[in-house]
Specification:
It contains 15 helices and three strands. The protein is mostly helical. It is found in: Nucleus.
């Protein structure tokens, strides 16, 4: 497995990753469940590592249970002391009663090794990833409707994807803005022009022609124009989208002055 580029650039200092991984063979995990010790085991681990994420990884669990059940069915005399563990019930309790506790069942050693290697690499590299924002999550084209005729064009342009990521901005509205202002910089240059009033900037885009509109009025409209301006020029990242559209960010900024 190749070392991520981010990791190759740092020193060999130890990095503490708040993650605890337990690997159980199928029989061992079944015994833990049947003895009703699993939940208490989780509680002890969380007391020792209160800030850590805990994961229980099992190997061949379902295959082991099926094999034991088949053996019990074929030869009941030799399997009288075994009962099927309530795996599903216990795992649901892990999900409901505990926070930051996960489980994963691997079908064989190869899948287990692959999962551990991938998990280790991800935990190591995530220390150096850029923090996610709403725009970085949604501006990858995931919000583009499946039937959009401009889907491929939008996916090729970071600016178009950013526009579509703005709530209630349809792809055809984004295309209309992009035709007039092909880059974010070109639009922000106008928005930041001190010679223009806020009113002029809010309605800057309202008369842009939108392709594919079936109504007589094919303009972008005042509502969308105002929304784009207020979202792009918002001063507070903690403000909700609807609040910004209603002017909360603008008015709070001036009231603070």
């Amino acid at each position: 497995m190749s070392v991520p580029e981010e990791l190759s650039k740092i020193s060999s200092e130890v990095i503490d990753v708040p993650y605890v991984l337990f690997i159980f063979e199928a029989e061992e995990f079944c015994n833990l469940v049947n003895s009703k010790s699993l939940l208490s085991h989780v509680s002890r681990v969380q007391r020792l590592y209160p800030l850590h994420t805990v994961c229980y990884l099992t190997n061949k669990l379902l295959a082991y249970i099926n094999k034991r059940e088949q053996g019990q069915y074929k030869d009941p005399a030799n399997h009288t002391g075994w009962k099927r563990p309530l795996i599903e019930e216990v795992l649901s309790k892990l999900t409901i009663n505990f926070v930051k506790v996960h489980s994963r069942h691997c079908v064989d050693e190869a899948e287990l090794a692959e999962h551990v290697a991938g998990l280790t690499c991800s935990l190591a590299s995530c220390q150096f990833r850029n923090k996610l924002t709403r725009l970085s999550v949604n501006a990858n084209g995931s919000l583009i409707p499946k039937g959009c005729v401009d889907k491929n064009q939008i996916k090729k342009s970071p600016w178009l994807k950013a526009l579509v990521a703005i709530p209630k901005v349809q792809p055809r509205f984004a295309i209309a803005i992009w035709n007039k202002y092909p880059t974010m910089k070109s639009l922000l240059r106008v928005y930041m022009d001190p010679s223009k009033s806020v009113h002029e900037k809010e309605f800057l885009l309202k008369d842009l022609k939108v392709e594919g509109m079936v109504s007589d009025d094919r303009r972008l409209g005042e509502i969308c124009s105002k929304r784009v301006y207020r979202i792009l020029m918002a001063q507070s990242g903690s403000s909700k989208t609807d609040d910004i559209e209603c002017g909360a960010d603008f008015f709070s900024q001036h009231s603070a002055e």
